[in-house]
Each structure stands twice: as structure tokens, then as C-alpha cells.
């Protein structure tokens, strides 16, 4: 019994030493690792490279996020099929997709989660209001971040890790405001925005440009990105309708807004940005969508050299048509992967300079490249109009980075 007790005590001591993290046998006095961080970490020199993605995947803007995510996943799947070598070994890219629900607080939590997971980089976020606070987390932890956000504030922060997949509001608003006055001939303009970083930012830039072109701007009206009833703010335009009403915001608001305009007998032209230019707007607005105009970064995908091929592959893979954001997510993801490939490393310190120097033929641009702030250099805006229930391109306009 005594010998048995001694044996039990010895076993307990040995177990305690192993659990306590003390030195184990090996001759160098160093603790053995419980697993190689390099094979699981996104930023290490391992085979699996994790790329984070975040956008609204639930809630009223989830159709944007899912479309965006599909383009990112498509690029990652293609890269895996190509057998690209990074970190001296065949790379296996993995997407870590997280829902930020278009909420700034949740987006920051997602960003911190990505930091803990040691992702190699992040594609997203989608909204300006979520991307701006999250970008601070990425900058502090040196994680490259390519987002869909369009607010000028994003790249005005001076961060080295921030890049876009789409034109900024200053670029789009400048072109659209001038176009509305000089080309379409609108002299009086009503403006409504949803007070989000995106909606307000785009409306501000549009107003500055239209005013500079000589238009009269009526007092600004405001709503929010949860509203569905707009009669009270639209009534401000009922007695003296402006030539055009510009809305800075998304289709969950712009679609019911145009329906209520028709109901009130307001015949002003309705003009908006890219978050209105999608099939969901037409589906919800119905007949009231007819004649609505909206802008979108880039030229129509069918007119791009690789556009038709992308549409065919996308439909075959996902069983649905391209909406808006998939090509931008695809290009942004390939920009990040190509930078890693050029650096032969998934470590930010190694591939970040290559990402900043990106100049590649993309789906959304023949020269997908960045200026020193992380804004796109090659900028084009296309104006679309709803005709017979379809978005039809009216005219493509050029703009340099602002």
C-alpha cells in the first residue's frame, strides 16, 4: 500500500508540472509549444492564410453584405485552385466571415476578434460608419484592410493600412453634383440624407459640387437608416417641388421614399448613389422606381474586358446574377492576395508595401491601383436610370482622385 501511495503521489506531481507550463524534456530548458502558431495563424509563415471579412450579413442591409461576400469568396476559391505559393509553400486561403450588422459597436468587436485570431488581412467592412472605427483597430495592430466604405474621412486619417475597393464620396459626389446641374440642367435641388457616415458624406459632397455649379439648394432634410415613413420630410418639397431630390442613403429607405413621393404628387426627379442602384430597390419600389436615377462607381460590367466572363462564372458558382458589390470585393481580395504573392509572405510588414503599389487589371477597373492615401487612382462613375423595370446605363463619367 505504501509503494502504491508513493506511485500515486509521483504521478500527481508529474501531471502538475506538465500542466503548470514548466520546462519539459528536450535539453534546452525551453517549454515545448502546444502547437505551431505558424500553421494556424493568418499572419504567420504557414500554409493556411486566414483573411477576415465583415459586412452586414443580417438585417435590412444583408443583401449588400451577401453580394459583397460572394465576390470575396470567389476570389479566395480561385486562388486556392491556382495553387499559389506564399511563405515558401502552397497557400491555402481561408475566409473568416463575420457579421457586423451595419453597427459601429459590433464592427469594432469584430475587428478585435480578428486581431485575436491573427488574420493576415481584412476585406471589409461595408459601411463607412462601421469601417472608420474598425480601421483604428486595424491600424493599431498593423492589419491591412481593404473596405467598401466611401466616406472621405476613412483615408483622411492618414493610416497606412487602409485601402478602398470603391471610389470615395468626394470623388462620386463631385462628379454627380456637377453632372446634375451642367448636364441634366437642374437648377433647384432638394437634399435628404440618412445621417450615416455614408449618406451624409455623399450628400455633403453632392451639395458642394452642385452649389459650385450654380444650383439653388433648398434646406436639407434628414431621416435615419431605420426609417420607413417619410411623409413629414417630403411635405417640405410638396408646395414648391425642386427639379431634383437627391438622397444620400440606402435602398431600404430610398425605395419607400419614392413610393411616398408619388403618393404626394411630387414629380421631382429622384437621384441617389450606389446603395440605391440595385435590384432590390426596383423590387420594393415597383412602378414608382421608373425614371429614378442613381450613380455607381466604375463603368458597366458588361463593357469591361473581363466583365462578361466574371458574370458567367459568378452565375455558375452561386446560381444568381451579380448585383453591385461582388466585383469590388473580388478585386479587393485579389489585390491583397497578389500583394502577398509578390512579397512571398502573408506578414503585413512584408506585403503591405506591395499592396500600396498595386496596379493590376481588375473587373471594376483596367488599372486597379492606389494613391498614397489608399484611394483608388483610376476613377469612373456611371449614371443609371430605371427603364421598364431595369437599371439602364445612361452615361459614364471620369474623375481623378480628389
Explained architecture:
Residues 48-387 form the Leucine-binding protein domain. This is Branched-chain amino acid ABC transporter substrate-binding protein. Keywords: Amino-acid transport, Signal, Transport. By secondary structure, the chain is an alpha/beta fold. It folds into 2 domains: 40-167 and 302-370, Response regulator (Rossmann fold, 3-Layer(aba) Sandwich); 170-297 and 383-399, 3-Layer(aba) Sandwich (Rossmann fold), CATH 3.40.50. The protein has 14 helices and 17 strands. The strands form 4 sheets. Strands 8, 9, 10, 11, 12, 13, 16 and 17 form an 8-stranded mixed beta sheet that branches. The longest helix is centred in the N-terminal third of the chain and has 21 residues, at 62-82. The radius of gyration is 25 Å and the shape is elongated.
Describe the secondary structure blueprint for this structure:
Blueprint: H1 2-19, H2 37-40, E1 48-55, H3 62-82, E2 85-86, E3 89-90, E4 92-99, H4 104-117, E5 121-124, H5 128-140, E6 145-147, H6 152-156, E7 162-164, H7 169-183, E8 188-193, H8 197-212, E9 216-217, E10 221-222, H9 231-234, E11 244-248, H10 251-264, E12 269-272, H11 279-285, E13 293-297, H12 307-318, H13 326-343, H14 348-356, E14 359-360, E15 368-369, E16 379-387, E17 390-399
Parallel strand pairs: 1-4, 1-5, 5-6, 6-7, 8-9, 8-10, 8-11, 11-12, 12-13
Antiparallel strand pairs: 2-3, 13-16, 14-15, 16-17
Helix pairs in contact: 3-13, 4-5, 7-8, 10-11, 13-14
What are its keywords?
five-stranded parallel sheet, eight-stranded mixed sheet, disordered N terminus, single chain, 402 residues, Rossmann fold, 2 domains, alpha/beta, elongated
